[in-house]
Every structure is written in structure tokens, then in C-alpha cells.
Specification:
disordered N terminus
């Protein structure tokens, strides 16, 4: 086809794309940057959560064994553990238990159950916060291939329109135009595949953090039960 672009470099193909294909490439580029931004932020957040939680567990355990409840609460609430998922759960449970222990409550009031509910509420809130941005990764991973396919369809239509206007036929006449169109599908897959990997990776991290919070919650409830039994024995 006379005048048809036979240079398959990305810059050359960008120059011959129609406005629809260019728009699709721009949208996919934004999705790629968005996905990378979420991944970097979540990776930083999870690494801090793991590091701070390990430090907290080592430092708070002796406090609880020595029944230093107020000291343990202050320690869990300190800024050095602001990203720790365990700090939030421990602080919620211990604060509730300490508050209820100082109130004039009916004899049938279950302080342990009250502390357990506080832990469950904080666990749900912490899990929701940790999943922040993962829904966007899921959306990018599922929609990017279809966005790229839309650009491909639009590009192929553009290529055949050019063939109709020039009156030329054959594969050679449309090969460059189809190559330009298929770039958007390739770009869509390039954006979607890492997003799927990242989504599954971070979801596994959240599941692991949930297990850690569940184990800590169970240990904290045991601590409440032992404390209540000890207090009743004194009476």
C-alpha cells in the first residue's frame, strides 16, 4: 500500500494511531502508574506492620506477664507502633478490659466477652484498612485487557478504513495498521498481568496478618480469663 507505514517502532506507530487508540494507550499508562503506586504504598505499609508487630510482641509480652496493664496499653499506643496491626488489636482489647474492670457493673456482666467484642471490632477495621487499594488492583487486572482489546478493535477498523479510501487490498496493505492496533492489546496485558500478581501477593499478606491478629486475640482472651479467675479467687 503506497504511503503505508512499514516502520514498526513504537514511536512510529504512535504517530500513525488514530485518536481512539492513543486515548486507550494513555488510559492504560495511567492504570499502570496507578497500579505501581498502590503496590509501592502497600509494600511499604506491610513491611512496617510486620517489623513493628514483631517488636511490639517482644516488648509487651513481659509487661502482660507482670500484669503491667497500663504500661502495656501506653506502649501499644505509642507512635513507634502506629503501623502495627497487633498494636491496634492489643490496645483495643486491653483498653476495654481495663475500663470495664474499673466500672461498677452487675455481677452477671461478662468483662471477658466485652473485651473479646472490642478485639473483633478492631480486627475487622484493621483488616479493612489493610485491604485499602487492593480493590483497585483487582479492577485494573480485570479491565486492562478489555481496554486494550477495545483499542485493537478501533485500530483494525481504522486500518480497514484506510484501505477502503485508497482502494488497495491484501494483507500487505493492512499489516502495519493491524500491528499498530495489536500494540494496545499487548499493552493491556502488560498492565494486567503484574496487577494480578500484586493483588494475589498482597491478599496473601493480608490473610497472614489476619492469622496473626487471630492468634494474638486468642492469647489476649486467655489473659483476660486468667485475670478474671485470679480476681475472683482473691474475693
Amino acid at each position: 500500500m503506497e504511503g503505508m507505514n512499514t516502520n514498526f517502532s513504537l514511536i512510529s506507530m504512535w504517530g500513525t494511531m488514530n485518536w481512539v487508540a492513543k486515548g486507550v494507550v494513555i488510559v492504560l499508562a495511567i492504570m499502570s502508574v496507578w497500579s505501581l503506586t498502590i503496590a509501592i504504598e502497600r509494600l511499604w505499609r506491610f513491611q512496617n506492620a510486620k517489623k513493628q508487630s514483631l517488636k511490639l510482641a517482644r516488648e509487651v509480652t513481659p509487661m502482660l506477664k507482670n500484669h503491667k496493664l497500663e504500661e502495656a496499653i501506653r506502649h501499644a499506643n505509642s507512635q513507634q507502633f502506629k503501623h502495627s496491626h497487633l498494636a491496634r488489636v492489643l490496645s483495643a482489647g486491653l483498653t476495654e478490659f481495663q475500663y470495664e474492670s474499673t466500672q461498677d457493673l452487675p455481677e452477671d456482666f461478662d468483662i471477658v466477652e466485652s473485651g473479646k467484642r472490642a478485639i473483633e471490632r478492631e480486627t475487622l477495621m484493621t483488616t479493612a484498612e489493610m485491604k485499602k487499594g487492593l480493590g483497585n488492583l483487582a479492577t485494573i487486572s480485570t479491565t486492562a485487557p478489555f481496554v486494550g482489546l477495545f483499542g485493537t478493535v478501533a485500530g483494525i477498523i481504522h486500518a480497514f478504513q484506510g484501505m477502503a479510501l485508497t482502494g488497495s487490498g491484501g494483507l500487505g496493505a493492512v499489516s502495519a495498521g493491524i500491528a499498530e492496533a495489536l500494540v494496545t492489546t499487548a499493552f493491556g496485558l502488560f498492565v494486567a498481568i503484574p496487577a494480578v500478581w500484586l493483588y494475589n501477593y498482597f491478599l496473601q499478606k493480608v490473610d497472614r496478618f489476619q492469622v496473626e491478629m487471630s492468634n494474638s486475640s486468642s492469647q489476649l482472651v486467655d489473659y483476660f480469663i486468667k485475670n478474671e479467675a485470679r480476681a475472683r479467687a482473691r474475693v
